[in-house]
Amino acid sequence: MEHLNWGILGTGLIAHEMGAALKAVNGEIYAVCGTSLAKAEQFKRELGVAKAYGSAQEMLADEGVDIVYIATPHNSHDEWIRKALQAGKHVFCEKSITVNSRQLEECAAIAEEKGLVICDGTTLFHMPLYKKLKQMIDDGAIGAVKMVQVNFGSCKEYDVTNRFFSKELAGGALLDIGVYAVSFARFFMKSKPDAVLTTANFFETGVDETSGILLKNPDGEMAVIALSMRAKQPKRGVIAGEKGFIEINNYPRAEKAVITYTDDGHTETVEAGSTEDALLYEVQDMQEYVRGKGGKENLGMVKDVMQTLTSVRSQWGLVYPFE
After folding, report:
1. What is the DSSP letter of 204?
2. pLDDT tens-digit map of 90-133
3. 24 near 47, Cβ under 8 Å?
């Protein structure tokens, strides 16, 4: 099969983690770009990258780069997705892929025009467990889905200078962890929610700290979501159907779920994939999309999630300074 060369934009923690996954899948990393050549060179030495660039423009001009992986802060995603696409590169971008649905729709239109693939790094979309559970639900394992419940709470250290609390960097719980929760809900709902109710509390910098989100789609399925950024919650999701319910703990990279059947209360454990290989699945899926020019179903799901996140933020009246 055609070998694909990845260029990494960013040298932070998640870029290192994805770099390790790329090496595991491809055996090498073609290029990296940092905020300085020194940082790129250090990343190159640490992970054995072939080329290091001190500017993104230089890396994007390299005809050897097939896919650009964007691991920069949220507020810069839109700019670099556009520039990578205009340079003829496929794009795999960390979540949240953009900060609003308008940006994503415009980027998707460029990708469509140029015959390129764009995809985001919401791990659960790529985990084998989710693909297996979706098939089981489609086959009627728990009957018609009625309700999805999902929580995600982290307890970030109080630090007004941290990017998590920066309005200028699109901080807050919604785009950092809420994208996982909304993605979980959308994955198990037959259609995109068309009713959104929400409320939030805000941190002193103006970003969302805690929130509750209620979703309903045209099929009558509902989802209840709870997010917090200064209070720990279990990463727990439940899909409830007429015949039983599925529980998934640590759901962003889950490898196991438990189904409880309503009629007699017996349980079934479903396992697929491996948590530690989560980023490998992302790389593998992206490369399959590129080789087959697929991924439209995934992009459609990501668009639905971004439209929901945008609706939520609109109701809050939260606008980032750069929008």
Report:
1. T
2. 999 999 999 999 999 999 999 999 999 999 999 999 999 999 99
3. no
Distance CA 31, CA 92 (A): 14
Q: Which amino acid is at 9?
A: L
Give bridge partners of residue 230 from the DSSP assignment: 155
CA torsion sign for 68, 72, 78, 80 is negative
Tokens of 158: 């109080």
Closest among 74, 211, 222, 240 to 151, alpha carbons compared: 211
β-strand pairing of 230-233 with 222-228? unpaired
Scored b (16 or more CB within 10 A) or e, 53-66 reads: bbebeebbebeebb
DSSP 135: H
Tokens representing 257?
A: 């779920």
Task: Provide DSSP, 137-186.
Answer: HHTTTT-SEEEEEEEEEEE--S-TTSGGG-TTTT-SHIIIIIHHHHHHHH
Given the DSSP bridges, would you call strands 222-228 and 208-216 parallel, antiparallel or unpaired? antiparallel
Q: Decide: 260 and 247 in contact? Cβ < 8 Å.
A: yes
Q: How confident is the model at residue 296 (pLDDT cuts 50, 70, 90)?
A: confident
Contact yes or no for 186/301 (Cβ under 8 A): yes
pTM of the model: 0.96
Among 309, 294, 305, which Cα is nearest to 187's? 305
Residue 32 to residue 10: CA distance in whole angstroms: 7
By CB neighbour count within 10 A (0-12 exposed, 13-18 middle, 19+ buried), where does 163 fall?
A: middle
